[in-house]
Write a structure and sequence with these properties.
Blueprint (H helix, E strand, L loop, with lengths): L9 H18 L1 E5 H20 L2 H11 L2 H14 L8 E8 L6 E7 L2
Antiparallel strand pairs: 1-3, 2-3
């Protein structure tokens, strides 16, 4: 499956996705464009699945991906146990209409309760 390139080269694109995922984990919700939200969702779901394991190995793997100890601590201390008995589908995308400046379709990516 081909992923969205969003008009960026691979390194800035990966950095954008990681930063959006970090903000999602810290704030439990982030507003962005719809295509970005759809791409970040798959990354976030995989990271939360690792956080559910709660092992030191999983923590190191997530830390190598996110590089943000505050977000990793919240993932393993709060979000992992919260989603322990949920088999997937940890996020939802709510469409919020179009951005005033350029008409881009906006969405809120949030963690489900």
């Amino acid at each position: 499956m081909a992923h969205r390139k969003l008009g960026r080269k691979s390194a800035p694109r990966k950095a954008l996705f990681v930063n959006l995922a970090i903000q999602l984990f810290k704030n439990e919700s982030v507003e962005t464009t719809e295509p970005k939200a759809k791409e970040v969702r798959s990354i976030a779901e995989k990271i939360i699945t690792k956080a559910k394991k709660g092992t030191d190995h999983a923590r190191r793997q997530v830390m190598s991906k996110l590089q943000d100890s505050e977000a990793v601590d919240k993932l393993f201390d709060d979000l992992g146990p919260r989603f322990a008995d949920r088999p997937g589908g940890y996020t939802r995308i709510l469409k919020t209409g179009q951005r005033r400046g350029d008409g881009a379709s906006m969405a809120i990516l949030e963690l489900v309760e």
